[in-house]
Amino acid sequence: MGKPLRVLIVEDSEDDALLLIFELRRGNYAPVSRRVETADSMRKALEEEDWDLVVSDYVLPGFTGLEALQVLRDSGLDIPFIIVSGKIGEDTAVGAMKEGANDYLIKGNTSRLIPAIEREMQEAQVRRRKREAEAALVRSERRYKRLVAAVTDYIYTVTISEGNVTRTSHGPGCLSVTGYSDEEYQQNPFLWYQMIHEEDRPAVTSLTEELRAGKEIPSVEHRIRHKDGSLRWVINTVVPRYSEQGELIAYDGLISDISERKQAEESLRVQSAALEAAANAIVITDNNGVVLSVNEAFTRMTGYTPDESVGRDLGFLKSDRQDPELYQDLWTTIMAGKIWHGELVNRRKNGELYPEEQTITPVLDQDGQIKHFICIKQDITERKRAERALLQNTSMHKEMEIARQIQLSLLPAAPPLLTGIDCAGRCVPASHIGGDYYDILLHGERLDLVIADVSGHSVGAALIMVETRSVLRAQMPALDGPAQVVAALNEILHDDLSRAELFITMSYLSYHRTSGRLRYSNAGHPPPLLYRPDEERFFELDAEGLILGVQRRVAFDEPAMQVAKGDLLLLYTDGITETQSPSGELFGVQRLKGVLAREHRKPSAAIIEAVLDTLRAFTGNTTFDDDISMLLLKFIP
């Protein structure tokens, strides 16, 4: 006969549920199950029946394993929750465990199912027993609280015959102190002895021998075990009674419950240990500011030992860096019974100055008079240093933001208004400043387009980008065609790029507006894309050429093609194609072509925004790891 197990299965596949039941039966369980597929049916099942276990698929139509976990948590039930799914990755599984799932298994590989269930059932049982014990303790405390009398002392008598205890009697207070009534003591003369804590019995029983010897014995503090199982501390004062022959015939005892006092002493010891272990310096003074005690942290911070501090006015730490008005405000505040909190500079024993954050709290007696001050001190040297660094970083951040605005202002503010051409551009830097650059240069019937990428995202890359723009705008009117322009840039910028250990990739295109002829050159840059919707065809405008800044006297090819009405031309940087998904997959050229083909009917600016939205969805982030720039032209029919 298998072990009974009530399992709620959250699963849309009846076959998978049957396989799970089969595994449970193989694991020597006799399962009683119910399968649900929605949140509402799961809530209903949890309300109508008691369950030992919930096993859930991770992906269901309109419902997920995490939502099922939330339904269970909302119910307030402590039931093990195990995910069994074939569509869950390791990261997702770890996330589910963090949300509260007890375990996860892969469908088809359920060898861990039975061990996982047994483990989780045991842990659930431990938690259940703990809750029951805590509830029982609460009930017990409520029950016995009314029995605790205001007077916790009581008198008992022990009668002795021929050296043996023959009878004990206990006063009315015994019930509140020990939990036993006098009748129970009379029924069992050894009950008192049995109540004494095992470690304390030798000291207590030795009293009888000393009494027989006629010695006066002092009061003894020892522990007894209350009827409810708890330990109580008592002080036991014994007064002997002797016969005329001097034989011990009985002794009377006074029992006082001192458990609260012992607890207070223990609490005081813990508090004292906490003060010594505290990371912050703690000083206790009288109402005149004279030091009564200091902890170890005070010595570490100031260099003064307790012997060097106690009995002195706390002002011995003062430096000459505070105005007298600060101390006047401090004393006015604390003498009014208020807490003072502030920062000041004090002096260590070795003369070193240090910044300190200090809180002084007045301690009042029952009449509302100030008896002591508790002063908590913290050395804030490192915090002050961090604050200064933060201010410097903030200043640098502002300067970088200014640099970013200047750099963006060098890009075309708006595309030129060109008959028959819809043009748009966009640059999204990965950080404050980047190395991407694009431009539109109009020179008569000639429309030049350029996009470039300076390696890196540093200030140096931004400066090279500005230099490139300046040289290009100065040289372009005097040169004929993309190949001459790119070659001239390479010669002029070569030395600066070499010294800066940077390089530039660039695509340069020249479009003749009357003839529709497009010439282009490329210096190691991703080839621009020309999309012809009528043919559903892409042309990659690539040409032979070397990256700028690698060597001098480089020859660049200059192919040409005829642009047709309706064509779409995109210049872009590799920040698009090299964008990665969370799994490390590259976005690539094919996905970019897919967006252009899908969105080509929209205006240029809307197509660029569609590319950015697709990249954000692909990465799952709103920011990118590399600069992204695009320049897009639509040749309107």
TrEMBL record:
Note the coiled coil stretches, chain numbering: 114-150
Superkingdom of the source species: Bacteria
Indicate the segments forming the PAS domain, all copies: 267-314
Going by the UniProt record, its keywords in alphabetical order are: Coiled coil, Hydrolase, Phosphoprotein
- Residues annotated as domain Response regulatory: 6-122
Domain PAC positions: 218-270, 338-392
Give the NCBIfam families listed for this entry.
Answer: sensory_box (TIGR00229)
Write down what this protein is called: SpoIIE family protein phosphatase
Annotated source species: Geomonas anaerohicana
